[in-house]
Amino acid sequence: MMKRIFLLVFFLTSILQAYAQERTISGIVTTASDGSPLPGVTVMVKESLHGAITNSEGRYTILVSSDGKVLVFSFIGMKTKEVEIAQQNTINISLESDALGLDEVVVTALGIKKEKKSLGYAVENVKSEELLEGNQTNLINALQGKVAGVSVTNSGGAPGASSVIMIRGGNSLSGDNQPLFVVDGIPIDNSTVAGSLVARSNRGLDLNAEDIESVSILKGPAAAAMYGIKAANGAVVITTKSGKSGEAKISYSGFFSVDNVLGVPEQQMDYGQGTLERLGINTFSTYSWDTTKIDASAPRFRNLEDFYQTGYAQNHNLSYSGGNDQTTVYTSVGRLDQDGIIDRTSYERTSFKLKVNSSLKKNLTVSTSINYVNSESDRTRQGSYSSGNFSSILNFPVNVDMSDYLNEDGSQKIVEELGNEPRDNPYWSAINNPITNRVDRYIAIGSVSYDPFKFLNITYRLGSDIFMEKNKSIYSWGSATFNEGYLSEYEVFNRINTSTLLVHANHKVNKNSFGLTIGNNVEDYFRRSTNWNGEGFIEPDFVGINNIVSENKSVGQNITMKRIVSVFGELRYDWNSQVFLNVTGRLDKSSTLPKSKNAFFYPSVGLSVLPSRIIEDMGISTLSDMGISYWKIRATYAQVGKDAPPHVLQTPMISATNTYTIDPEGFIRATFPSGNPALLPEFTSSFEVGTDMRLFQNRVGLDFSYYYSTSDNQILFIRMAPSTGTYGGYLNAGSITNQGIEFLLTSRLLEKGNFSWDMDINFAKAKSLVNDLPGEIKQVENSDSWAFNSIAEGAAVLGGSVFGIYGAAYRRDDDGNLLLRTDGMVQEAKTFQVLGDRYPTWTAGITNKLKYKNLVLNFLIDISQGNQVLNGTKAAMIFYGMDPMTLNRGESHMFEGLRSTGTFDDDRNLIYEPNTVPVILDQKYYQKTYSEIGENFVEDGSWVRLRYITLTYNLPKKWFGDKVSMAQLNVTGRNLIILTEYSGVDPEINTIGAAVMGTGSIGIDNLGTPSTKGFDVSVRFTF
Amino acid sequence: MNITKKIIALLLLVSLTFSCEEYLDINDDPNAPADVALDLRLKPTILLANGAAMWRGTREVVAITQNMANRQPGQAPDCWKFTNQYFIWQNTLVWTYPNAADLIVMGEDQGSPHYSGAGKIMKAFLLLLLSDQLGSIPYDDLYDGRQSTILEPKFEEQKVVYEKCIALLDEAVEDLSSTENEIPLNRRDGDILYEGDTEKWIKFAYAMKARYLNHYTKKSSLYDPAAVIEACENAFDGDGQDAEFAYNADGGQTQANPWSRRGYGDFGSLTMPRYGGFSNFFVTMLQSSPFDEDSVDARLPIIMPPADSTGLFTGLVVGRGVDEGMSLTDYSQVPGGFYTEADSPWPFITYAEVKFIEAEAKLRSGDLAGAREALREGVSANMRKLGVDGLDIADAEARINALTDADFTPLNAGLHYIMTQKYIALIINPETWVDMRRMDYDSTIYHGLRQPENVNVIFGPDEWIRAMIYEYNEENRNPYNIPDNTAEVRLKTPVWWDIPE
Description:
The structure holds two protein chains of two kinds. By secondary structure, chain A is mainly beta. Chain A contains ten helices and 56 strands. Chain A has two domains: 128-264 and 309-387 and 433-803 and 838-867 and 941-1022, Beta Barrel (Maltoporin, Chain A), CATH 2.40.170.20; 268-301 and 388-405 and 414-432, no CATH class. Chain A has a 22-stranded antiparallel barrel. A five-stranded mixed β-sheet of chain A has the order 10-15-16-13-14. In chain A, strands 3-2-5-6 form a four-stranded antiparallel β-sheet, with no helix packed on it. By secondary structure, chain B is mainly α. Chain B has helices at 2-18, 21-24, 42-56, 61-64, 88-109, 113-134, 158-177, 198-213, 225-234, 280-287, 300-303, 351-364, 368-386, 390-401, 411-425, 431-438, 472-477, 487-492; strands at 68-69, 137-138, 155-156, 277-278. In chain B, the strands form two sheets. A two-stranded antiparallel sheet of chain B has the order 1-4. In chain B, strands 2-3 form a two-stranded antiparallel sheet. Chain B is globular. Chain B starts with a helix and ends in a 9-residue tail after the last helix. The interface between A and B is large, with 79 and 90 residues.
């Protein structure tokens, strides 16, 4: 007891002593260039956890204990400065701008800020202004072309459409290849609901780019070891804006934009309605296969082109930031209204954010933030579905006016053709068959940071990301597809709760600094999706599930749950700020693995050395003589484990019914996935080396990375032969290696008087290779990625790309000669074949910033080379007789190849001879042969594009007096120039959307809404 | 000291949260029960065997057997233009068969051999249904409820598959005869065939055995008419024993008979039904009956409705489509007949079929009188089932009784009577395609049978379709085990029992 009291007294005295010896230092931080005050600068006592932030006038006040010798001033985009504390109580300093981010502080795992130079792996940072350039409504699109090794692919021009983001290619054959998204230290949902019927949204779309301070891209498992499982594909770490102390600021930003389709596929204008029937051409048809040209004087209708209209959008954001030295507040509201290029399609987003940081006690900081987002979108059907608007338009030949779609009584004009399913007119559909989607999302984070001792910090953070989604899909009464109407609705409740406890300790002995972090993380994921649908409205004019008789209704529910509990640690060693060593380890326990084997461990080791500083310290000036002011070498080895998807260890029982078969009226063994009770965690191991160099007074920066990673024994969903009794299941098998180089050049090309030109070039070359697949399996397909008529799909190919194209090819002999039928016609190969690779051989982004006085011109040139595209849209155009290629209908053509004689040799092999029989290129050829062979539709999709160009004018301050501290006007053009050989609209395409796992559906063009180009005018004021 | 303690305490706290096994115990599928009781597994298995496997194995075959015909010319099933997109394979092997396999092992594990027996009958039926259309199929490497998944199952010769399936039917009889049985078949109304009557299940097993032993007719060394007749004797011996259940007319589309307008078979449309109507071949067969005073089989108006516009019974010529100047309403449509109402049962096998099998076996073993007797009972049983007027039945029976040995000589003359009557009694059953191939589509047996018009160009004038093409999913995912799957080879190469030895 005595001992305890003694300890307590000792403890209290030591604290009091600490107080007694502290003093206050204050000052102003300004920019070196123009002497203006710098708000938001972090001021730290070196080797302690004490810190302050400058207010809006650049002022700071900090308590310094007697052993505090140095103050460190750091700010993103400025060179960090260290100032020794002598006897003075005021320290005013100026910071020099550091366009090249020499001592840049980056946000890494779990919201921990680290100096970039200490990292053994590549991290790239995208700042708020860069993010806002180009006025993208989807945050993910704002990263396009800006980061080496990050690929972002849109899914078309529909408002609110998803985008898929991948860092350094694909690691997983059947799982998600997209990175983890983290907001202020908690993981958030960026999922996309599966299904290609409409262009669905990825949930990252809910984030308002205006609220974001910076985005750090952690590439690969090296950067992500601390985040565990979900960061195996890298992480997008988002830090949102916080209030700044000092005078309150109100900012407004807004834009108006005008969008149009980038283009539509070319269509032939010579032949109209017609289809070949037994007795000749039937001109009462939805096909354009007439064999007689339309009369020269007859009217022609460009139904495809005319269907798309101009889309207008406006976006307004208002934010408030303020506070005092103890408490800061940031709050904002944002509103986006976007009308699509198809009538009645739209995307609207309203967001609200409040973030409060408070450190009322000197060693305790409490932060709370809440973000509410409501989004509503109106969509139309797309893709191969018979009700998709693009494929429906193809049913309106050039001599038919699609816009004339109503009968006199107000009902829809329906073209019924013998043998073909009638379709709704797209104009009628846009009004009467809407799909509406509404999302309410809450992201709430609370955290407490406590420093019981100088060397110790304890942080606890609780975060919750909850969204509710409602989706309603209607076919109105009078639809050609469902004559008496159809309704399908679903509701999703999705929640990720995360609890994180972090304990940081630091200690320094002479030139040796040690740091230790220990943490615990608990993640709880829950998703419930409920759906109901029914056919036939009792009262034609009312849409609702109660308006359908009970036997025509059905209902279903799907629940997914997953929990992970983890402990992890990080040990840091730093020698004289010149050599940095990091060791991490993490142990995860996941609910999705077999109970006896649900824990798994993975480590990482990283090293960063600054030879430039070491040599400098040795008094050798060779490097600086060569113009090298900074040189860093880094290397990291890391592993990351991955668990199984939820609920796949046992084959479930289902009460489902296959198409055109009987209702089992009870439970049957699920047709997939077949359960596997023996699943083990999969591991990705990666090795990365890199170097970072600054030259010529930091005017040029070079950064180079090489990485190599292997993902072995993957938890793989394999589509299996039906004779296995299942369509597929999970097993541990398969191996992928990924390797690549990334290169980053930052430069100030020109600086003369008031003019400067900065150019950054990022370049990446990556190769994902499938090394091994189970059994005799040669490819892992994802049938969610089927293109029109099932001509081909995405697949990871053994010995080839993770992003292959796999589909119907011509039948050939071993020497590549076409094998023709007895009538001289080409034919389809017996099995599907590998047709191409959708992943680019290299990509590059060139960002430019030209500045003259108050004028700034930014533009981004984005390049992708060697990626192939599967053009399903063209296959459909040909099938319907609309493609200009079909103008040669009726011509005779002799295929070069070997023709079957129809006779067999002794071994029952068909005998072939060189072809001499011509065939007619008619409707039958194009529909039944040419358009069915996927090989015909694989094209080079390389492109170079001017992704955006923005001219910004900073209005002179004197115009507004004191009222306005910043005013800016800018004009942006998006997607204005695209150079490509691709025959479709835009080779950067992913019609099926971001939900497709594994091989994904990037590079598959399949009857989606064409991409857009447009202009914006925007303004930005700060009061 | 204090700090160290605090850190240790913290670490303990951390490891405490980490050891929460219970917290992580949430991986059982929350959407459906993981285990469904054995007595609830039988009904779905029977339903799928009929409405998924047999349906998808009949949907196209009815055009090959010329039961039905398309309204348009040159359509794929009528004209044998099959591809690797024929889906009996997955509907049998993925949707249905694993449930039969589960019945067998669950019955074994739960002391309920009656379920194993029912499962074995279903398994034999499903696999031989497949094999009869495709030839070699996997057997040992299939899902069996015990072994872990074999990714690329080996295919086995049809001969071997037959031996194994017939042995399975013998085991089924044994299982169903067991007096020690824990869970009764019909405990929760799951036995929609026989309401738990194991005697009828045993007869069902023998009926199946008779059917499959009778497929050996081209195999001189294997065909044993005595064994067939013996199986027939142990099979159904009267009315009301047919292996069938009534579809549900009051439920949803997927509960109604697929051949009915209400069902899921795509016969709902008046203008674009799956098939335009019954075939001219079948209608003509019923209109030239040797067993009726005015040559019109009394079953004709029961099996199909007359044409809407004419009130006459008119069939479509297979492969030709609707004749010029006529419309769909000029033909007898498929829905609305005895087998094609929403609640019509669609039998797996019937008492009548057993009698026709017996008739054929007796004919082949030289017992012509016995053959005629079995034929008479087969025709009579089918007429009774269809509710034909007693006078008409008596008339037919009398006419059959009047037949002599001379009428049944040579073999094909006898087969003509038996196989034609079997064709009528088995209308809309894939077994008819087996019969037609065993008879080599002989027009001296099936009078008036001709190749369809607009037949697939790969067939010569005397060539007939012999088998189907395996589904592309098997071809793509199990490429090294699947036999040659090119259309020319598959469609023209006879399955094992179809090759005379």
